[in-house]
Design a protein that fits this description.
Elements: E1 22-37, E2 43-59, E3 63-67, H1 74-81, E4 89-94, E5 97-98, H2 108-113, E6 114-117, H3 131-141, H4 150-160, H5 177-189, E7 195-199, H6 207-224, E8 227-232, H7 235-239, E9 244-249, E10 252-258, H8 259-264, H9 269-276, E11 291-292, H10 318-322, E12 338-339, E13 356-357, H11 360-374
Helix pairs in contact: 3-4, 3-5, 4-5, 5-6
The protein binds adenosine-5'-triphosphate.
Residues 33, 48, 50, 68, 70-76, 233, 300 line the site of adenosine-5'-triphosphate.
Protein name: Dipeptide ABC transporter ATP-binding protein
Region (Disordered): 1-21
Family: Belongs to the ABC transporter superfamily.
């Protein structure tokens, strides 16, 4: 997986061992968006390194969660995998076929099996098309003629996602946010895909609706055996959906493992920080540590040398600035639990003696507040 090349110059093992069961295999994936300057010649003066060397795999029927703060490259990864974007480097193999540079016009067959659900159910549905047309269009474009006819099949799909099939002739603006996301799901299901890339599928929805849509996706995953790459910034959402989770920071995967490893025995300080910002991510863990991860992710135009998290990390030492830690199985980690850190945390989420506050300004504020509270 990673990202990184090991000291010997060899790539560490992929996140899911290549087993032949992998539906999706991503190696060394990069997307650098060029930054150009000049009116006439448009010289390239730099690049946004949105995705900077990812290795991961998704097995048939499994759900891999991809989490991290805003701007760390999750959406770009989803778009690279579905070939909505052209990679700068690396390889994407889907269902045994190398689709890395497959021309878009030749993507039709692969796209049948590789669908995407978008974050914003408002902008991802054409307001001028009826729900029926929206759900039927992928079938028509791909020359799929279901025995029961397009209309009946579209109505069946609406029913599967919990919508009234009688609403076939209605328009997207007649539906709520949650219902619109269900229309997006019905459209994605129309081609019976093997993999769905769900890019923050619930973050635009009311909290009360989010669980319903996540449950729907979970039912579909189980009943139809569809694999998911589930992208989210919230570890709480992914916990209930994904058997495995990859944590991303500034264009790289910093930790990956099964649910228990990530939520109960995380080793990377960034995973600890993300977990500690989610209330009750592990029920009953009242003594969970508290880490406040404040401040912004550094710019992907000029990421920190060595470990990219070091500028916000409480364990950083000199080595972290000079050597990029490879994503490897650390001593004490279980199978498939890989961490990219020189000074990993203990595999526990138990509370620390004191809070860790990562932002100096925030720390100063808290200290001032403490002093005024105690009258010191
Ligand atoms: N077309 C583009 N041109 C230039 N930079 C881009 C482009 N698309 C994304 N980026 C930059 O790449 C980085 C990663 O963006 P991306 O949307 O993949 O992150 P993300 O983790 O999905 O965040 P969010 O949850 O906010 O969407 C960001 O710094 C973003 O500004």
């Amino acid at each position: 997986m990673s990202t990184t090349k090991s000291i010997a110059g060899q790539r560490p093992a992929p996140a899911a061992e290549s087993s032949g069961e992998n539906l999706l295999e991503v190696t060394g994936l990069e997307k650098h968006f060029p930054i150009r300057q000049g009116i006439v010649f448009q010289r390239q003066v730099g690049a946004v390194r949105a995705v900077d060397g990812l290795d991961f795999a998704v097995r048939a029927g499994e759900s891999l969660g991809l989490v991290g703060e805003s701007g760390c490259g999750k959406s770009t990864t989803g778009r690279l995998v579905t070939r909505l974007l052209e990679p700068t480097a690396g390889k994407v193999v889907f269902d045994g076929e190398d689709i890395t540079h497959k021309p878009v016009v030749k993507m039709r067959e692969a796209r049948q099996n590789l669908q995407m659900i978008f974050q914003d159910p408002y902008s991802s549905l054409n307001p001028r098309h009826t729900v029926g047309t929206i759900v039927e269009t992928p079938m028509r474009l791909n020359g799929i003629n279901p025995p029961q006819g397009h209309k009946r099949r579209a109505q069946e799909l609406l029913e599967i996602v919990g919508l009234n099939p009688e609403h076939y002739n209605r328009y997207p603006n007649e539906f709520s946010g949650g219902q619109r996301q269900r229309i997006g799901v019905a459209r994605a299901l129309a081609l019976k895909p093997k993999l769905i890339v769900a890019d923050e599928p619930v973050s635009a929805l009311d909290v009360s609706i989010q669980a319903q849509v996540v449950n729907l996706l979970q039912d579909l995953q189980r009943e139809m055996g569809i694999a998911f790459l589930f992208i989210a910034h919230d570890l709480a959402v992914v916990r209930h959906f994904s058997e495995r989770v990859a944590v991303m920071y500034l264009g790289k995967i910093v930790e990956v493992g099964d649910r228990t490893a990530i939520y109960e025995r995380p080793r990377h300080p960034y995973t600890h920080a993300l977990l500690s910002s989610v209330p009750e991510v592990v029920p009953g863990s009242e003594n969970r540590e508290r880490i406040r991860l404040a401040g912004d992710v550094p710019s992907p135009i000029n990421p920190p040398s060595g470990c990219r998290f070091r500028t916000r990390c409480w364990k950083a030492q000199d080595k972290c600035a000079t050597e990029e830690p490879p994503l490897v199985r650390l001593e004490g980690n279980g199978d498939g639990h890989l961490t990219a850190c020189h000074f990993p945390e203990e595999p526990t989420i138990a509370s620390r003696g004191e809070d860790i506050v990562l932002d100096p300004a925030l720390a100063a504020l808290e200290e001032a507040r403490r002093q005024s509270d105690t009258g010191v």
